[in-house]
Amino acid sequence: MILRPVIKRIAVRNLLSAALLCICALSSPAQDFRAYSKAAVDSLQQWYTPQTGLYNTTGWWNSANAITALANYSRIAHTKKYRSIFKNTLHAAQTGPKGAPGFINSYYDDEGWWALAWIDAYDLTHDRRYLQTAASIFTNMQSGWDTTACGGGVWWKKPNHGKNAIENELFLDVAASLANRARTPEQRADYLAWAQKEWAWFRASGMINSDHLINDGLNYRDPGHCTNNGGNTWSYNQGVILGALTELNKAAPDPTLPATAEAIALAAIDHLTDANGILHETSPAHTGGDVPQFKGIFSRNLMLLNEAFPNPRYQSFARANAQNLWTNDRDAANHFGFYWAGPFDLADASRQSSALDALNAAAALH
Predict the structure, then answer these.
(1) Using one digit for the tens of pLDDT, what is the confidence trace for 111-124?
(2) Residue 37 in contact with residue 73, Cβ under 8 Å?
(3) pLDDT exceeds cutoff 70 at 68
(4) Which of 101, 122, 123, 104 minimizes the C-alpha distance to 113?
(5) Domain 37-364 in CATH 1.50.10.20
(6) What is the three-class DSSP state of 154?
(7) At what angle do helices 312-328 and 33-44 cross, to 10 degrees?
(8) Sign of the C-alpha dihedral, residues 357, 332, 38, 309?
(9) At 13, is the pLDDT very low, low, confident or very high (cuts 50, 70, 90)?
(10) Domain segments of the chain: what residues?
């Protein structure tokens, strides 16, 4: 009789322990995506060159994306370890042997990537030098806005070459992001006006096709009558717009913005993945530094959309791609290749930072 209360308490305690174990098993991922991200970062940083502030084996704009991936990893891992990298790149990438003062060059899309990188660094560190750099870059980007061809939009290359999706998506993303971080109502209103003007033009441009995917750009042989060029639906074109519309909706809520972002996100998942849900490009191009960077950009922007508007399909996509990268597209040194479904092809900083974006996306879910 005396033992019954004790036995009962033990039984209850065992049941509670079992329940807690079940909860932990359900709430923890089967694989440690944060550990995968750390392994990817450790390998990525072997290509970092302090003298230039850039990443060897890849290009100028790719290094901006690597900095963005590093900032996102730092946020997920709650680490300050890489703050010296951001500080060094801010200086060396402007003054070093491959530098561009003010992060200004001949391409408006390159400038947009660096502006977004410094906005991420600002969000992480709250150091206003990064935000000021992004604002200065955006001032230069504004000079690319032109209404003589296609009624608006930013040119791709200075002075007046190409009206494409990517530089205009970046222009929208930077403008909306700066509006959300502006210090004064006047600044906020100015950035928001640019973002809304860009989105109104982009939405009407014809670059979003009937499948809700974004083609590469516009034909503008007749400046007054521009049409969708039918170019490839690169994964990064489907990605940047998701982050841009999320930022714009934060600045000026409008139910059509998340609805449009969802349509594009789901179209990309439906059309740009294989039977196992692994992201790939519809074009066979994969050499150089550009195309290998694209898929990671989609992954990280999909997770920005998911943070604002959670969707189980986005989350399943992130987990499946991260796990497949780790299992089928990795060498013994934790380098990741171009083919996320496998097999591993070769290692460079473009492929590595793109994979890091995908691993960060999965880690951010937990």
Answers:
(1) 999 999 999 999 99
(2) yes
(3) yes
(4) 104
(5) yes
(6) strand
(7) 50
(8) positive
(9) very low
(10) 37-364
